[in-house]
Amino acid sequence: MTMSCQSIKTNIPSFLTEELSRDEYDRMLGHMKTCALCRQEMKDLKATWNQMDQWKIEDPPSPIKAKVMAFAREELEDVHIPWWLSRVKTSVFQTVLGALGFSLIIYLVLPYDKIIILCETLISKETFLAFFPKGVIYFILGLLYGVVPISVSGICFLKPIKKDQLMKGLGAGAVFAAFLVPFFILQCPGFEAGLIFTMALGIITGSLSGGTGTFWGLSKVRVGVT
Predict the structure, then answer these.
(1) Is residue 55 helix, strand or coil?
(2) In whole angstroms, what separates CA 59 from the centre of its chain?
(3) Which residue has the higher pLDDT, 153 or 118?
(4) Which of the pair, 42 or 1, is modelled with greater confidence?
(5) Is it the case that residue 225 has pLDDT exceeding 50?
(6) Alpha-helical segments (H) within 82-133
(7) pTM for the structure as a whole
(8) What is the rounded CA–CA span in Å between residue 134 and residue 173?
(9) Alpha carbon of 78 to those of 66, 68, 83, 165: distances in Å?
(10) Could you give the C-alpha distances from 41 to 18, 19, 46, in angstroms and in order?
(11) Does residue 120 contact residue 197 with C-beta atoms inside 8 Å?
């Protein structure tokens, strides 16, 4: 099957870059042997490509380069960055990720459902626990699940923060709680709703207080040392 000149011209770039099938390549080669116009079209395109390969990109003159860079800086300054994102530092993300990792380790060693069952057993057996409201015990337990991971992570990963320590710590604690609480609820199906709510409230309180206290305390200590 022969190819028309229009089809040949459309496929010349693919012919030069060797992207055609063997059959298409042979048909184009056979056509150009008998068609001077298509041969010339291919030679012209190949010559243009060769000239483009020889072009050298030179740096613009210094005054023009300086103007372009100044314009780019002005455009970047005009970009609106949310106030909360401008306050976030890499150490905040490191602390949150570390807290999630430590929390997972705690869960693997002491799963939530087993801790709840253990608490139920202790409350029923130990007389001194009867003096405490049941909700208080589970709130304290949730508090520990929130405080311990983010505090340990802060000790390991937190860098000195000279400004807005409380705001950054509060944000880290909120993000940590936002990940941990849904996971905790999903892992404790079948337990009393009030019990789960109390522990979740403890986790949130512990995460916020742990993040805030750790960021503020460690930043004060480490900035003072440095």
Answers:
(1) coil
(2) 36
(3) 153
(4) 42
(5) no
(6) 83-86, 90-109, 112-125
(7) 0.54
(8) 26
(9) 19, 16, 14, 27
(10) 17, 18, 9
(11) no
